[in-house]
Amino acid sequence: MSKAARSLKLYSYVMFIFGVLLVARPEMIAPGESGATLGIVRSLGAMLIVLAYYYRVAATNELTAFFHASVVGRLGLAGFQAFAVQRGWLNKSSLGGAALDFLSALWTYSALRSDARR
């Protein structure tokens, strides 16, 4: 398994865990909310679980084009999250997720470069 595939495989596990947490404990993200708001958070958690599955399959099958696309996507997501915090759309705790996405994207990018040199 390439270094890039390993980075995505690990990232898929992280996404899966966060997805399960959002489904099981949506109030962690939306404290004090109820009803439809928690339903939306649970739906986002379920989507994260599906996305984690896609990442796992891509890693297992060495889908390099997906690896490159994921780097761009995760950097874009991190940028959006930082922008949303600055605009007041998200609370500052969202910066932890942005940092995770940013650093994991850099890890995959570095692994792709390393794999290309082999």
What would you say about this model in short?
The protein is mainly alpha-helical and 118 residues long.
Question: Number of domains in the coordinates?
Answer: 1
Major sheet size, sense and barrel closure? none
Order of helices and strands: HHHH
Rg from Cα: 15 Å
- Whole-number average pLDDT? 93
Task: Find the count of extended strands (DSSP E, 2+ residues).
Answer: 0
Helix content: over 70%
Shape: globular
Low-pLDDT residue spans: none
Number of helices: 4
Which structural class is indicated by helix and strand composition?
mainly alpha
Distance between the termini: 13 Å
Query: Percent of residues in beta strands?
Result: under 5%
General description of the model:
With 118 residues, this protein is an all-alpha fold. It has one domain. Helices cover 81% and strands 0% of the residues. The protein contains four helices and no strands. The chain has helices at residues 3-24, 36-60, 64-87, 94-117. The longest helix is centred in the middle third of the chain and has 25 residues, at 36-60. The radius of gyration is 15 Å and the shape is globular. The two termini are 13 Å apart. The model has no long low-confidence stretch (mean pLDDT 93).
Features:
118 residues; mainly alpha
Chart the SSEs and their pairings:
Layout: H1 3-24, H2 36-60, H3 64-87, H4 94-117
